[in-house]
Amino acid sequence: MYVSPIREPLVTGNKTYKKITDEISAPIEGKPGKAWYAGITLTVSALLLGLAMMGYTIWNGIGTWGLNKTIGWGWGITNFVWWVGIGHAGTFISAILLLFRQKWRTSINRSAEAMTLFAVMCAGLFPLIHMGRPLLGFFVFPYPNTRGLWVNFNSPLLWDVFAISTYFTVSLLFWYVGLIPDIGTIRDRIKSKFKKWIYGLLSFGWTGSAKHWQRHESISLILAGLAAPLVLSVHSIVSTDFATSVIPGWHTTIFPPYFVAGAIFSGFAMVLTLLIITRKVLNLENYITVGHVESMNKIIIATGSIVGIAYITELFIAWYSGVEYEQYAFLNRATGPYWWAYWIMMTCNVISPQLLWFKKLRRNLVFTFILSIFINIGMWFERFVIIVTSLHRDYLPSSWSMYEPTIVEVGIFIGTLGLFFTCFLLFIRVFPVIAIAEVKSVLKSSGDQKDKPETKEKH
Amino acid sequence: MRRYISAYFEDEENLLRAAKDLKEKQVSIQDVLTPFPIHGLDPILGFKRSRIPTVGFISGAIGCIIAFGFQAWAFIVDYPLFIGGKPHFAIPSFIPITFELTVLFAAFGMVFAFLIQSKLGPGANNPIHDERITDDRFMIIVDLDEAGNLYELVKEILLKEEAQDIKVKEIDK
Questions:
Q1: DSSP secondary structure of chain B
Q2: Does residue B45 fall inside a structural domain?
Q3: Which residues of A are less than 8 Å from B120 in CB distance?
């Protein structure tokens, strides 16, 4: 096997297979530190606040939100789109990078996929609460009913139901199939009898037989092949929620690719936010190296630039179309009462990622961390700008209005942040954060060990 | 009564060479247990290509037909309703859900096929030969004949590749 001497190693620290297992399993076997307890206290408190606010909303109705007749979608749908977008990076890393044979994905795919699942859970909550009566949420599924009616298969909102639920299920299957061998590893290491039994149950009796591995590799590849168009379809379908309407600023054909690029952009930012902390706290710097961070930053420049081009194209087309409503919608975005949201979006999403053209900054962890937070904020504002500023002033000036969220909406958003980080904190204690078997399989070709067996002897 | 010999290697390269030698000597290898997939092992062991992709295609096709057929039936036959002046049989509108269900069915089909074929699942109680197979040991299990003529030959090949912990086991069958 030829190994390019120029290529940066993906696993540093002269690792052996044993060391990899020991180091990645350590967080599961050891006791959590003070930082973990502090973290989970904070996130559970946020979650409880969110649950209280959700209960308040369901009890009293959507009137507790800042919505009005003109602005029917506010923070709720903004948060929904934002969370779904964040989920996209996980599937992108595990599916599309697998198809492109990018070995650096092996260190980050597990946690990114977990992030996908948690983000989609948070996302799904918003449409459910937004229904006002979540107990009747099952109305969105085509089940035989006494009214003899079916759901509207022509509606993008219904496509969304299918897209999000399929996306969640397939991501869960993909993630779990990948986890099975690693759960087997934990099962064989853990001392406590009870935990051994639990992991034994979860490992599905994994033995590592060659035939099982062959099937496992085959299924991973085909699931990746399915998940790749799936992830592109999900945000495309979310974008049709807007694009098939007649609201100026929404009714654009550019939306599907623009939303997908934005989703991957924001998702990678969230992966970086999480992993820059995780690698430090769990001592995984040898697996998630600065090289990994740099690779992710390169994807951020690429997708961030696509997003930037999309913003500028929208502006140009609004002017070029000659439609005064369209022109006003974009003029109003940039200079109207919500100008600040538009310029936060422009600064965070278009200008700030361009700094990553400098190699020094791409490889600087503190800078990358701060930038990733900026992008998360910027992408949230993108959705806010699209939804609120397009709605608040459309065709009839007599209906023009303003929107601001109530404490209830803000609380629910904080609650989903709490849910997301609580799930992630629990995940790092229970399952290996890095795909152990996959890292081992790239160790020889991409590790930095001094005497590689294949250089010693060839047969 | 069946006898077999088990041993482990500390490097996958040794395992590959030993497996190749054994196969050349017409010794049947019962199983190879490894912590991660070893590339190049499948042709040595004479594995056919996995049929999981075929299962995925068939279950995906079923999902596709069910989804498209159901939407068309509901909107044309069961309850034709005018929605936004669109035709009842609005093919483009049916595509997103058809696609999603195709993927969903294919994924479920493949995962179930994988688990059932490999006899894996919650509560599966497969024997664990060595607790470090999922860590850093590459184990090989070789069938022996009843007379025991093969033993010396197998042992020699295994030792040549620095195999550890060579053990003969017997199971009643």
A1: -EEEEEEEESSHHHHHHHHHHHHHTTPPEEEEE-SSPPTTHHHHHTPPPPSHHHHHHHHHHHHHHHHHHHHHIIIIII-----TT--SS-HHHHHHHHHHHHHHHHHHHHHHHHHHHTT-STT-----S-TTTTTT-EEEEEEE-TT--HHHHHHHHHHHTT-EEEEEEEE--
A2: no
A3: 180, 204-206, 212
